[in-house]
Amino acid sequence: MLFEPYETEPYLDFSDPSTRQAFERTLDEVRSRLGRDYPLVIGGERVDTGEYLTSVDPCDPDRVVGRSAKGKGPEIERAMAAAQEAFETWSRLPMAHRARTLVKLAAVLRRRREELAAWEVFEASKNYLEAIADVAEAIDFCEYYARRSLKLAGPLPTYDVPGEENTSHLKALGVGVVIPPWNFLLAILVGTTVGPVAVGNTVILKPSPSTPIIAQKFMECVDEAGFPPGVINLLTGEDADLGDALVDHPRTRFINFTGSVATGLRINERAAKVHPGQNWIKRVFTEMGGKDALIVDETADLDLAADAAVAGAFGFQGQKCSAMSRLIVVDAVYDAVLERFLERARRLRVGPAEQNADVAAVINKKQYDKILAYIETGKQEARLVLGGGAAEGKGYFIQPTVFADVPQSATIACEEIFGPVVSVMKARDFDHAIELGNATMYGLTGGLCSRDRMRIERARDVFDVGNLYINRKITGSLVGIQPFGGFKLSGTNAKAGGPDYLRGFMEMKTVTERF
Ligand code: NAD
């Protein structure tokens, strides 16, 4: 075997004072490096364009985390050419060569684990555990895809016929565009980049304008790991300059997108058009939003359910695609669950991420305004039982907010809010709870707290989500253990961190020779 067996990266235990103090020293160190400028990375060269995106700390928007160069049309052309050139050699390397490069990248990320997590605290307002978990997931993607890629190296089994040799093997597609969101700013960025790269593709990575600095840190690690120039190119910039232009580009072979439904559907539609000079149909992966529900029935351990609900709803301020934004409770235990849920949610501390608050600021002003507007809508639609507005502080802080007795027709029961806002809904019985659970356009994660075997088995069958969790929180999937991706308008079900993920970035060639 080339590598030792895959294992997920452990987190740090911040309840240990020495671990916590060490991390606070790393935060001090990173704090002293905030506010610097970073260029684009194209074909291994640093390219400065003289114009910058400014990344700020959501907990203190006056604090500049860094500025990253803005790429536009000319940089897109340069990056496409660099990625195309690198593809000619990278795609022809043995799979094991590339796999070792990924394992090396994992080692570099691991050595810089605390530092990278500290950048996440400042750039995305993740508390300590959320930040370290995100870095751990990024490491897992490298280790896991390195190992999975080896399984795709050889010829595929086919039948023989006399007098002929028939071989089928998988090849890389070409130059891809990788478009991750800001919420798992390192993990998703790394996973969606190194997956296609592991099997021989080269990419242009276009991070979210809200979190370009972590992408810059990633590129430092890419250099250190020894990736050849042009295999991973970084274009930061405005969506208006880069989004459509990269998607429409005739050299783009595939798009690996994670983000909202609105952007994903736009990409899907635009990518369908074949432009002059383009000799292929673009392959599009769109992993999109969720309106995820946890169902609690009358047989459930109600304390476990309340713990799962709070962790799923308010971890990282509810800004996870897997976040529990609907708590659906059967009538018989509705009041009891609501009371336990509120009792726990009331204890959450809202404050700066660098002080390791339970709930820190949401990512930016646009999201802050959007979430507050949803809260106002909720006040018209349901009964506000917790929070209900902005929280104190200089940054984009929002109180953990809970609405009770939310009807299925309510906007807040249907649309993804992507903030610390929960709709609690009453179901007549278990069947009605499942009906409510399935009543959205999304199908990403879902959960059931129950002790009833028949119902658990039924939920396995009919709860229409890509990731179903029984008797636990519905967030925190692990690479290689819980392949992640949804149904319906939650996306193309690429299943990040799953055994089939890499196959999507390859095509099969069959050679027949008659002797
Ligand atoms: P978003 O759709 O606003 O942006 C996602 C990415 O698309 C960003 O890099 C953005 O810069 C880019 N983009 C914006 N306009 C574009 C265009 N016209 N063409 C090409 N790219 C464009 O989403 P977001 O706010 O960054 O992320 C939050 C969303 O992501 C939520 O809906 C969440 O549920 C979803 N999400 C899904 C998953 C999943 O695995 N299904 C994981 C994480 C986040």
Description:
This protein has 515 residues and is α/β, with parallel strands linked by helices. 38% of the residues lie in helices and 20% in strands. It has helices at 17-31, 73-90, 95-111, 113-124, 128-150, 187-198, 212-225, 239-248, 261-271, 302-314, 334-346, 365-381, 411-414, 430-437, 453-462, and strands spanning 36-38, 40-42, 45-47, 52-57, 60-69, 164-172, 175-179, 202-205, 232-234, 254-258, 283-287, 292-296, 324-330, 383-386, 401-404, 421-427, 442-443, 445-449, 467-470, 487-488, 506-514. The protein has a 7-stranded mixed sheet, with helices on both faces. The chain has a 5-stranded parallel sheet with strand order 9-8-7-10-11, sandwiched between helices. Strands 1-5-4 form a 3-stranded mixed sheet, with helices on one face. It is globular, with a radius of gyration of 23 Å. The chain starts with 16 loop residues before the first helix and ends with a strand. The mean pLDDT is 98. Residues 179-184, 188, 207-209, 239, 243-244, 247, 258-260, 263, 266-267, 287-290, 321, 416, 418, 444, 484, 486, 490-491 line the site of nicotinamide-adenine-dinucleotide. Nicotinamide-adenine-dinucleotide is lined by residues 179-184, 188, 207-209, 239, 243-244, 247, 258-260, 263, 266-267, 287-290, 321, 416, 418, 444, 484, 486, 490-491.
